[in-house]
Input
Amino acid sequence: MSVYTRRGFGKMAMAGLPLGAALAKINSKVGGVQIGVQSYSYRDRPLDAAIQAMIEDGIGECELYSPHIEPGTLPRRGPVNREELRKWRLTVPLDEIKAVRKKFDDAGIWLFAFNLSFRDDFTDPEIDRGFQIAQALGVKVITASSTVSVMPRVAPFAEKYKVMVGVHGHNNVKDPNEFATPESFAKAMALSKMIGVNLDIGHFTAANFDAVSYVEEHHDRITNLHLKDRKKNDGPNVPFGEGDTPIKQVLLLLKQKKYNIPANIEYEYKGKDDAAVEVKKCLDYCKQALA
Output
């Protein structure tokens, strides 16, 4: 069966049946390029439903958005304050985190990275625990929408745990403490070889930088990409193919140069359909671009 990622399998998997050995791994490589998803794309639903959506969409690689496993931060959950969240991070049993990894393994999805955005209000024990959670998830990469100023504290933990941190940029070029410019990325990478870049090519384009040349120049330090389409000059998120982001050109560069860089769909535009349907549209665009 070339596509086993149908709704029937998803429903069975989410029903808790022992399908881990029965399900093959979902293959969402296209032309040698690993296409995956940032689970933020399914932020309208809890983790189990998000995994089911990945199965149905045929997504075989995931970057896990931390609120999908943290308390009180997604729809249908109650609010949680900053200290409660810190306490959860410091005390959650790591066996519970390992059980999250098993959900992905049982679904045939490669859990590639954990998205935990270290900020200036993180304590050192909280940073340390973030790396322990990443290890319990079995990942070698943490992606982080962080500040420039926190990274000198993060780098030693990345080296301690041998977990790469990919700093994620947005397009706020006016704030020197936010990652957005090539110079801000360079400042982080200078701290340690364990610090790289999680390049969001949509935000990079909205900030009026050239994603194709940046990927070619820094491919050895890019942990993974975020795929979204935006207009230049701080323009809006739009459906794939309607903006200025060179999604096709970047994907073809990965294919031609055989760069081993996962390209993760991050659904952020306001679509007409359910998030799972919109992510599938994004995946189909990537497949056509790489055909």
In short: The longest strand covers residues 33-38. The chain has one domain: 7-290.
